[in-house]
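Go through this:
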Amino acid sequence: MSGQVVFPNVQELLTRDVRVSLKALVDTETSALGRRVASLNAPEQKVAAIIAETDPLHFLDGRSGSYFAYHLDGVCVNIPINKRDNGKNLIGLS
């Protein structure tokens, strides 16, 4: 059995499992954020609620993953690890 590849697609399987897990996390957080801001009227209140909700949340090893939020027009609501871009329109950023 030496030199024989037993699970040739293990990396693909692991990557797919990570993608599925991350999608579930994002979907759950999106629903939670939607419920949290639904009763708020002022845009400033909604932004503050989104920041309060997403700032402390991190995932992946070393807490390198974080949730971020944008308005549909490309204006950044919150990037917990890069606050200087909050409030800027980043739609053309590549």
Summary: The first strand starts at residue 58 and ends at 59.
